[in-house]
Specification:
Six copies of one chain form a homohexamer. Chain A is mostly helical. Chain A has helices at about 20-30, 35-50, 55-80, 85-90, 95-105, 105-110, 140-160, 165-195, 205-210; strands at about 1-5, 220, 245-250. Chains A, B, C, D, E, F: InterPro entries: Ferritin-like, Ferritin-like_SF, Mn_catalase, Mn_catalase_C, Mn_catalase_dom.
Chain lengths: ~280, ~280, ~280, ~280, ~280, ~280
Amino acid sequence: MFRHQKNLQFEVKVDSPDPMLARQVQEVLGGQFGEMTVMMQYLFQGFNCRGEEKYKDMLMDIGTEEIGHVEMLCSLISQLMDGASPEDQSRAAEDPAMAAIMGGINPQHLLVSGLGGLPTNSNGVPWNGSYIVASGNLLADMRSNLHAETQGRLQVSRLYHMTKDEGVRATFRKMLARDRYHQYQWMAAIQELEEKNGVVVPASFPPEAELESQEEAYKFWNLSEGEESGQGPWANGTAPDGTGDFVYVSNPEPKGQVPKPKIPADHLHHDLGKHLVKNQQ
Amino acid sequence: MFRHQKNLQFEVKVDSPDPMLARQVQEVLGGQFGEMTVMMQYLFQGFNCRGEEKYKDMLMDIGTEEIGHVEMLCSLISQLMDGASPEDQSRAAEDPAMAAIMGGINPQHLLVSGLGGLPTNSNGVPWNGSYIVASGNLLADMRSNLHAETQGRLQVSRLYHMTKDEGVRATFRKMLARDRYHQYQWMAAIQELEEKNGVVVPASFPPEAELESQEEAYKFWNLSEGEESGQGPWANGTAPDGTGDFVYVSNPEPKGQVPKPKIPADHLHHDLGKHLVKNQQ
Amino acid sequence: MFRHQKNLQFEVKVDSPDPMLARQVQEVLGGQFGEMTVMMQYLFQGFNCRGEEKYKDMLMDIGTEEIGHVEMLCSLISQLMDGASPEDQSRAAEDPAMAAIMGGINPQHLLVSGLGGLPTNSNGVPWNGSYIVASGNLLADMRSNLHAETQGRLQVSRLYHMTKDEGVRATFRKMLARDRYHQYQWMAAIQELEEKNGVVVPASFPPEAELESQEEAYKFWNLSEGEESGQGPWANGTAPDGTGDFVYVSNPEPKGQVPKPKIPADHLHHDLGKHLVKNQQ
Amino acid sequence: MFRHQKNLQFEVKVDSPDPMLARQVQEVLGGQFGEMTVMMQYLFQGFNCRGEEKYKDMLMDIGTEEIGHVEMLCSLISQLMDGASPEDQSRAAEDPAMAAIMGGINPQHLLVSGLGGLPTNSNGVPWNGSYIVASGNLLADMRSNLHAETQGRLQVSRLYHMTKDEGVRATFRKMLARDRYHQYQWMAAIQELEEKNGVVVPASFPPEAELESQEEAYKFWNLSEGEESGQGPWANGTAPDGTGDFVYVSNPEPKGQVPKPKIPADHLHHDLGKHLVKNQQ
Amino acid sequence: MFRHQKNLQFEVKVDSPDPMLARQVQEVLGGQFGEMTVMMQYLFQGFNCRGEEKYKDMLMDIGTEEIGHVEMLCSLISQLMDGASPEDQSRAAEDPAMAAIMGGINPQHLLVSGLGGLPTNSNGVPWNGSYIVASGNLLADMRSNLHAETQGRLQVSRLYHMTKDEGVRATFRKMLARDRYHQYQWMAAIQELEEKNGVVVPASFPPEAELESQEEAYKFWNLSEGEESGQGPWANGTAPDGTGDFVYVSNPEPKGQVPKPKIPADHLHHDLGKHLVKNQQ
Amino acid sequence: MFRHQKNLQFEVKVDSPDPMLARQVQEVLGGQFGEMTVMMQYLFQGFNCRGEEKYKDMLMDIGTEEIGHVEMLCSLISQLMDGASPEDQSRAAEDPAMAAIMGGINPQHLLVSGLGGLPTNSNGVPWNGSYIVASGNLLADMRSNLHAETQGRLQVSRLYHMTKDEGVRATFRKMLARDRYHQYQWMAAIQELEEKNGVVVPASFPPEAELESQEEAYKFWNLSEGEESGQGPWANGTAPDGTGDFVYVSNPEPKGQVPKPKIPADHLHHDLGKHLVKNQQ
């Protein structure tokens, strides 16, 4: 069960409204790596978590923090939209400067939400559940979490330079600091889990089943012209878990068959009649 | 520019058809972490890659390999569907065993694709572009790649146990080996990039701008009841880049204001008339 | 079966083209509460309607009217786009005023539809079937209908002030009048159905099954800090159907267990090995 | 800012696992009117709320409660999936009873979430932001809220009869009781707002602008054959706000023009060449 | 403006209910090429049509017919679902035959629509606006229409064999006949337009602009191993409009540059620092 | 299996960056008929192809070519975005000309992709799998292919006039030439298949089953007011396959019943109680 406190986690302040920026901020609210994503991702991972309590508790801590980040961004967008009105559009017809602003805003901030934040990205595409991951494998999910915080901080960093408003920037700085911590957090958790389970997910796949195809687990297939890719650590040396050495295959040949699928039953209404079927075994 | 060879990368063989399995296999073809995702993700990262050639070349190598994995999975699904026909459904009305199978198949494998693979997941949801990431930041993207291969191998591992068909299992073993290598590959690349750039993405955000909010970059906010989360390495010790020590905040208090947004212009047609607006400053 | 008459239901007139407004108008054509939504919603409710003929007939009347509203809005958008051409964009490179306009238009109005209306909202997101509701419960659906007309009229009202074009405004006035009537219409139907069935949907859920948890049906759980929510009619007095009195629970405590889910089978490839599983019963 | 308590709001108990039911329960978790919808809807309405504090506080109270309902349903689904494993599918190939169960489950509960709840509906379609509404108009939004609780309770009622498991039914009874209260709650709020603002949304549209088209605000257009629709309260008597009397138009005629759109610029590459353009003015 | 007649265009009859078939039928109601698609496609093409009246009128005739086909399919699905109830699921727990049927039905037919048709495909994916096409170019759109009727008739043909119910089959026969006519209809229109405009769309692109790259307009690039593709009419002989002869390029070489994109501004936070940028010009 | 060559198929050159154009170009990259669509469509058709080798080989040739077109467009967009930076937005607040440009760009080109191409259309809607078709019927699919190339070339033609940049135009000219050839290619294939199979898809539907409803296969139903539609070749003369003559039905009457669906089981919680059910048989 959850509870809400009225104060925001951090202060959210806008020195002067900027409806164009409000549209951009939607990316880190309702985009692929926005706060809605990390909020829902950590909550689902926590709700579904089985096993050791410290992981579940930690996921619930941070998932709960992220609900408050969605709250902060809605407040930020509301302040950036303050004072905007439908009339701005009709004035735009006469004034290029106003037209430029109206062209840059999200029309739904006026028409649909009445100046509030929307559960969509910076292009108005609704947030959706396929942005998030909760797989029931802790290491897999914490790699997802590290990645999400990585992209999220990258986007907020870019956004930071899109404004000179000191109020907005101060809000972003808090978010950047938290995104920094959250990257640390998942790295620490990943390191612990990799030490226990090994670095390849899932580590639990039966080793005897892998034997037959083991050599393919160390090969780099050079399928793009040129051999620059041979200069990286993925092409030389030993696998991170020390189980084998990498092999750079400069000119790989396919190992499978040329597929020859069968002609289906007539009632599938393909048009592969007798005259068309010369290559069929 | 690309070229196609007729042989599959690896042999794809099915001992006996299994339309229910065909539906499950769609998850690793057209799902969130299926082969379409890694194919499109690596290609877009490669197409958009700026900077050192070895990264671009490597992305193009693996992106090109993954097109061939989509090809393999389509061949696998076609073979799993061999012999299925629309009549199966009408026979299902009379035969519970047939009904059970028909209930478990994807109706679109008959109606829409005529026994072929579909660009959708195991529930028929179409693959979409928001599954992929190509951010223009190498480290960010390689964390995404490691994560995608992690989830992908996890799903193929689960799928492996869903069949006893030795032909299918042999195909999966090749894919599992490649997914193992690809996890190694991204780990190696990540290690190299972290050594050059630091572990926090983006490392390039101006340090002086972070100062003000620096303390928030090391704090764990305990927002879920209980302190089990204090037992993990994310709550104790030093940040992975050694820049500070973690602080576990047992009972955190919010630091922001209670938001008091303004009443908008009348023509937004809120219903915040005079009688309703007592708390407004 | 349906028939089409060539005249529009009401006159649609544009004094002068305005491509930026055309983009905004898409919201009330193909957005969440646009005319496509009410058209498809009433038609599906009508097509699926079982029971008394007067409801079905009424749904078909209004669903049929709404097809004509989609027609009107397509005509409106076409007129707003009249004269626009691909060259406008190339001229925009040289002229800020033109750039402002081009920035504000929907590129698909030029590239995709050739100046016609699109089945999308004001941000170009395609209309989709999850916008509509047809549940097989009349009262439930008519509450949906009242709500859809409410949001629709709100959006058209906001749009009205976005233009000073008297032709466009006259068109909107007709739509606003119809949206007013349609709100009346659903209110009248709802009142009739509530009198027959009671106000809680579904009224038909077996009362004896509700007994055990009956007290929860009248409680307000105060889960956000502060007690301002205690000042409303939802926290005081008697339920609308007179079956009980509201109770304001100032400081509610959870009544459920702390969940302790089981460790799954090994072949799900979680990473909850022995070392990780201390809290498991 | 938010906080989490470890106990669930109400007890969630499953007497015996039922993977087919787990799939159906997804509808009320991640479907159009599932708990994710009401949770996100109330939170966004609360975050964006401007004006009188009691409304905002109330929205935050219930939005916060609903996060806990998502938590409860994830716990319910986890318990319903307990013991399921990938091997079930391979056994299905030999056993019709097992095949029937496997046909009825959501493959993603095994492959993607490892037995946990998913942010999708009962057919696996991801939850998305266009399910929710936060318009900045209180009365409009509370009509949406009443409607959402109406559909939600209807679906839980149907689901209730899909199981005889007494543990599951007890959980549903708590949810049904809360859905009953929430319907009451929004009705009470709506009544208060309608008394203040009038019943037509938005009440604030300038009355003088409506004059010209006023008569259309009381007319029923009979556009479907038959006059059964004339028997309802929407066709007779006085509008709910007493501003006019309904008029049933038995055989309505269109009042608009036959549209005659212009031929666009050549560079739009229509194919309306000279020979094709006879009807153009 | 539109009108509705109470009789269906053709009789819709089901000899005995079949909930599994109801799910499949959703494909031709709300799938990519279902009746909702042709209905909305022809209506939008008609609403947006500029130029000669006979095309617009014809599009409106058939678009109006298709609304009635959606109506017919909703009636078909309702009849196929007749008698189904939530209890069927709870009985499924005990009875494999019932489990098989429940596994095969769409859970939303019970939970969401109460036995009515849904605006979704056979896997429950909502219909969406990106299924349709209305480009403002008549020939382009009529090729789309021919194609849509082609896929639609193919799917209904497959569906036909999925049932032995003579009532259902008779309904499908009517639809198949109409889909046959509609294929004829678009072929006739296409032939007329191709005679007037030429076969390449758009014919109006300035011929002088094409000159430079003209040779590429007749070449087949053989980019897949093997030369079987050289045996078709696309590789030999003369273009359909007689403007040139096809050339089969057996071993094509790329003609473009190796792309060398620039390093972006620092504030985009790429990680292309000095050490990483050796290949940059 | 696939291979990649480093050179682009054709030269891609931009004389000067144009971020607004970059947004428009997304339509032909990741839109409904963009290069991602034809690439994935031809690859899936090829992967799933059964029967005569020359068709499969040809599909693989062109599918492989189209991967390279996606590559070219990513290169084009990268060049059009060169030099853009987050600061542009903050400068926009002060400069109308800059505001106009920023209003016209896709914010995700800065925030999400760091100046690279995105798998989305010109409004930022992600590409999705329901854009493509691979039905297992060759003639059906080749009609789809002709149509896709038709719309694609139409959109590139419109885009061509949106810029005066000679570099960009030269790139488009190559694409227009290839789209011209691809239209020829599918026409040639269609003609061959129609000669073998007949023009109606699927030709294989049993003729005896069609007899009963045969007359409906030649009738034009005039359901929109006016008889202009009677002037076209679809209303007069003989069907393209010579099997019958068209009949123009000026005033068609419905042939089906008025549907009277049954009242469902009580536990579906409709509200069709005794008082509401007068018209039920």
